[in-house]
Design brief:
By secondary structure, this protein is an alpha/beta fold. It contains twelve helices and eleven strands. Among the domains are: about 90 residues, Winged helix-like DNA-binding domain superfamily/Winged helix DNA-binding domain (Arc Repressor Mutant, subunit A); about 90 residues, D-Maltodextrin-Binding Protein, domain 2 (3-Layer(aba) Sandwich). Strands 3, 4, 5, 6, 7, 8, 9, 10 and 11 form a nine-stranded mixed β-sheet that branches. Strands 1-2 form a two-stranded antiparallel sheet. A hairpin with a 4-residue loop joins strand 1 and strand 2.
Length: about 325
């Protein structure tokens, strides 16, 4: 079954002419766009792009698919909306496991979206960390779909019988107390942050090990003043001036006063968000729900992230002209 999210990405790649441009437009990384297009090629069984070191050129198959993709996406949503209005009594029950920050900032926005009301899904929700929700998907479990995250390549394992669908990335950001006097548009390298007090994950967790390796690769050796796996607690302690922290964009949607969010080029890390699904539960309704989830996550994180320094410099240059 072709992933509708991949079709939307295909439209942007062919329209803009590169994976990088499409990634910037959609809020993904270029590698994530490349992975989506590779998955689409596997699903359709055709080569969609001629790839070189500097460019990607759509094949005739890609151009043909692009001409139909927009209509397909529109028709699928219209069909599902019509079907749910006609057969309200046939709503599909979906038992959903979801991690806390996605439940806090993304799920309510989905439930308030008119597209949700047309899906015909009877939702049952369980909020828990990924390891717990994955257990609920095992044979005889209480869940049909689990929304989980993975930092780097470690920390999670799931049965091979489950289908995995990439939803989006929740990028980490460096957060400093505003009382330190560093502006949000300041150009700061990771090495400059080494002598500052830090609030970090408890040692030994998979997330903490990935972050430790990242910091070491940047020659950043933090002076630890607090351990916290709760991002909201970390943000509040940062706002109070205790130390710097590294938190994902979802936690910054309602960030407290008194913090500065930096874009530090040396520190690139994300929570990769996936949907894990029991195959027999994958229907058109569930597929459209995951598409709506991906769109909502993208727009939510777009509102949370700081303005990139390159964009600030372009704006400043434009004002000087």
């Amino acid at each position: 079954m072709v992933n509708l999210l991949h079709l939307r990405t295909l439209l942007e790649v062919t329209r803009l002419g590169s994976f990088a441009a499409a990634a910037a437009r959609l809020g993904y990384t270029a590698s994530a766009v490349s992975q989506q297009m590779s998955a689409l090629e596997r699903d359709t069984g055709v080569e969609l792009f001629h790839r070189s070191a500097r460019s990607v050129v759509p094949t005739e198959a890609a151009l043909t698919m692009t001409r139909h993709a927009s209509k397909v996406l529109t028709d699928v949503e219209a069909l599902m909306a019509s079907a749910s209005r006609t057969h309200d009594s046939a709503a599909q029950e979906l038992r959903l496991g979801i991690f806390p920050s996605l439940a806090t900032y993304v799920l309510p926005a989905i439930l308030g979206n008119p597209r949700w009301k047309d899906l015909g899904i009877d939702l049952r929700v369980s909020v828990a960390e990924p390891a717990q929700t994955i257990q609920g998907l095992r044979t005889g479990g209480e869940l049909d779909l689990a929304l989980v995250y993975q930092v780097g390549q470690s920390g999670l394992a799931w049965p091979h019988s489950l289908e995995r669908q990439w939803i989006g990335d929740d990028n980490f950001r460096v957060v400093l107390p505003s009382v330190w006097g560093i502006r949000e548009d300041a150009e700061v390298a990771a090495a400059h942050l080494s002598d500052m007090p830090w609030i970090i994950h408890h040692p030994g967790t998979s997330d903490a090990m990935v972050i430790e390796r990242l910091f070491a690769s940047c020659n950043l050796h933090p002076r630890v003043v607090a351990y916290s796996d709760d991002f909201h607690a970390s943000l509040e302690m940062t706002a109070a001036g205790l130390g710097a922290s590294l938190v994902p964009e979802l936690a910054l949607v309602h960030r407290p006063a008194g913090v500065v969010v930096l874009d530090v080029p040396d520190i690139r890390l994300a929570r990769n968000v996936f949907a894990l699904l029991i195959n027999e539960k994958r229907t058109a309704q569930v597929q459209l729900f995951t598409e709506l989830l991906a769109d909502t996550l993208h727009s939510t994180n777009g509102n949370a992230r700081p303005t990139p320094q390159s964009a600030i410099r372009r704006a400043q240059t434009g004002r000087r002209k």
